Amino acid sequence: MKVLAVNPGSTSTKIAVYEDETPHLLRNIRHSVEELAEFPRIIDQFEFRKNLVMDELKANGIPFDFDAIVGRGGLLKPIPGGVYEVNDVMLDDIAHAMRSHACNLGCLIASELAALLPDCRAFIADPGVVDELEEIARITGSPLMPKITIWHALNQRAIARRFAAEQGTRYEDLDLIICHLGGGISVGTHCHGRAIDVNNALDGEGPFSPERAGTLPAGQLIDLCNSGRYTKDELKKRISGRAGLTAHLGTTDVQAIVRRIEEGDTHAELVLNAMIYQIARSVGAAATVLYGKIDAILLTGGMAYSNYIISRLEERVSFLAPVYVYPGEDELEALALNALGALRGELPIQVYQ
């Protein structure tokens, strides 16, 4: 079985070609700010990114003869985890999605490219809107605003399965707390194969991150919204995009911030330590969901490469459960393996409706 995986991100398009479980091509195509500035909306980048994928395959002599093309899932309506075949309902929902993110391009590219081949199927897997919350976790202090989840479902599940395999068990038999530490931060509580509680890592819940504000004081936010100082779009950016570390310190580069700390920047030290503090506090809260019975805490994502962050986070949470670190993300491999499982009949193919 031959699979093409496509993972559009905010500043890159990652692609992989797998024949069965063997990767034959892994590419991270980076996009400059100037390149993307030509497109008023993210959805307008579709042709640009699709053509880059095709060009990369040609440049590497990869024949265009796939059994499946799997894209990163977009910000659709809340759905259970798993593999979904791209259909017209999904494409229409993406075209009218309320939230804008480059991941929305994944199913569009997969569908368009798969249509060029007679027997090729288009899939998505574990999109960021996967919702398996227990009902008690949905209740907030206002019936007008029930809790929603937008999180790093694909990577968290991939890391969970990887950890389970290393331990000689199954993801479905474990109780885990998994922290994805990237541009956004999601802290998921996984109970026997379901993420029963997890924060909205995109637009306003949980710890602040390099790009996102996390939970904010509601009263002050309402006052700011009515101050006349910012437009709605500007305020949205203050929550996701120009928030978190970049709002406080002018950069999302953790290594650069650590260098500033080593050179004596006490403000940078306070802000970075505050982010670590908030992550640890979220892990502690997640522990109560599992009644303190936790098999492991898994730390993943790009910031998991930082010894500064990981060492301080472990100091605060290791008393709860053993901590395992998986730097980076396995999203391309996870996409490919999900598609292979669907093609082989090992994973059910769900219908988006």
UniProtKB/TrEMBL annotation:
Fetch the InterPro entries from UniProt: Aliphatic_acid_kin_short-chain, Aliphatic_acid_kinase_CS, ATPase_NBD, Butyrate_kin
Membrane spanning stretches = none
Q: State the UniProt keywords alphabetically.
A: ATP-binding, Cytoplasm, Kinase, Nucleotide-binding, Transferase
Catalytic reaction list: butanoate + ATP = butanoyl phosphate + ADP
What are the recorded GO MF terms, alphabetically?
acetate kinase activity; ATP binding; butyrate kinase activity
**Biological processes, Gene Ontology terms:** acetate metabolic process
The UniProt entry, under PROSITE patterns, shows: ACETATE_KINASE_1, ACETATE_KINASE_2
Pfam families in the record: Acetate_kinase
Fetch the Gene3D superfamilies from UniProt: 3.30.420.40
Query: Might you give the EC number(s) for this enzyme?
Result: 2.7.2.7
The places in or outside the cell where this protein is found are: Cytoplasm
- The answer on whether this UniProt entry bears the keyword Cytoplasm reads yes
Query: What cellular-component terms does GO give this entry?
Result: cytoplasm
Q: What is its main location?
A: cytoplasm
* Record PANTHER family: ACETATE KINASE (PTHR21060), BUTYRATE KINASE 2-RELATED (PTHR21060:SF3)
Q: Which HAMAP family match?
A: Butyrate_kinase (MF_00542)
What does the sequence similarity comment in the record state about its family? Belongs to the acetokinase family.
NCBIfam families given for it? butyr_kinase, PRK03011.1-5
What is the recorded name of this protein?
Probable butyrate kinase
Q: Taxonomically, what lineage is the organism? A: Bacteria, Pseudomonadati, Bacteroidota, Bacteroidia, Bacteroidales
